[in-house]
Structures are given as structure tokens and as C-alpha cells.
Amino acid sequence: MSSNADTAAATITVYSDYVCPFCYLGRESLRRYQETRDEPLEIDWRPFDLRSQKRTADGSIDHSVDDGKDDDYFEQAKENVRRLQEQYDVEMTLEIATDVDSLPAQTVSYYLKEQYPYETWLDFDVAVFEALWTEGRDIGDTEVLVDLAEEVGVDGEEVRSALSDEQLDAAVREQFTAAQQAGVTGVPTFAYDGYAARGAVPPEHLERLVDGV
Fold first, then answer.
1. Which strand ranges, in their side-by-side order, compose the sheet holding 41-47?
2. d(Cα 84, Cα 116) in Å, to the nearest integer?
3. Which of 6, 22, 92, 156 is most exposed, with the fewest beta carbons within 10 Å of its own?
4. Interhelix angle 21-36/71-88, nearest 10 degrees
5. Beta strand 41-47 with 10-16: parallel, antiparallel or unpaired?
6. What is the tens place of the pLDDT at every residue in 169-198?
7. Distance linking the first and last C-alpha atoms of the chain
8. Does an H or E element contain 30, and which?
9. How far apart are alpha carbons 65 and 203 in whole angstroms?
């Protein structure tokens, strides 16, 4: 339902990064909760940067940088992803995506969020998640993002222009800083009316967060 209705839809703020499998799984939980509501609940997406410590100047990921995440961490993460896949009945091609940089995808997504109707942004946002986690496509690749944007009705040249816009890049990085200043330390983080829930929490947890029940 469009937010252009007589009564504006309620919104839930969601901090996320496309390369986080728990963000993808958390969005499935949110989708399920949204379907149970009588009134629409829109997503106020806020980008979060999981790659900041490891991103090199050319956008590649430097795995030699110690971010405190060792093999045991990733094995536990994979196990948790598999558990949530089963819980939410979601098929995923990948369990983690340590070599993918989401900055280009977040840049395009932020541009669409600012310049296009909510539904266009949402379609692109969903397409990015699915391209990475169900199709195994590199969402750091410009041509992949052009394809995804064109599928939701956005001109590909507009995407290329956005990715070369230094002011837009600075604005996205400011969003990363704002998330940290808001106290967000991990994703997904769902925020509503001064309260927050972190992680791919079940739909009933999101219901309590928003509806207080």
C-alpha cells in the first residue's frame, strides 16, 4: 500500500547491510509480521557499514585486517544462518558473503530512497537481497546493480551516475556515522518509538516492539 494514502503508514526504522545474512533473514521475519497487520508498516531503511575496517581504496576486501572475527566466529554464524533458514523456510545460495562489498549497493539504494517513491526503493532493496543471498550475484558490481535497478524501472545510466557522485558517496558515509552515533553496533537493528530489537528476531518479537503486545 502506498504511503500516499490519506493516513500515512506507520514506519519501522531498520538498520542493515546487504552483506549481512541475518539482515536478509530478519527482513523475512519483518515481512511475515507486516502481513499480519491490518495497517501498513513501511520500512525506514538506514544503511550500516560492516566492511569499513576491511575495505581497500579499490573496493576489495582485505581479509588480513583483524576485526575480531575468526574461523570459529564464522562457523557459528553459518550454523545460526542454517537454523534461521529452517525456522523461516528460506532458501539461500550463500550462508556468508565475506568477499562482497555492499557499499555500491547501499549507495544506489540510498539514492533511490531519496529520489523515488517508496515502492520503487522497496522493490530494489528486496532485489538486492535476493540477488546476493538466493542467486549468489556480486552486488558490488555496477552492472549487477544496473540490471536490478532497470528491473524496477530505473534507468541504468542514472545508476552509473549515482555511483560516481562524490556528494552522494559522502551522504551515504554520513549515514554510516549517524548509525554509530545512534548507538547501533550491529545489524539488523529494528527501532520503533524509542525501543529497539537487534538480530533476526521472530515476527512476534517485532509485534511486541511495534504494538507493545
1. 41-47, 10-16, 189-192, 195-198
2. 32
3. 6
4. 20
5. parallel
6. 999 999 999 999 999 999 999 999 999 999
7. 24
8. helix 21-36
9. 36
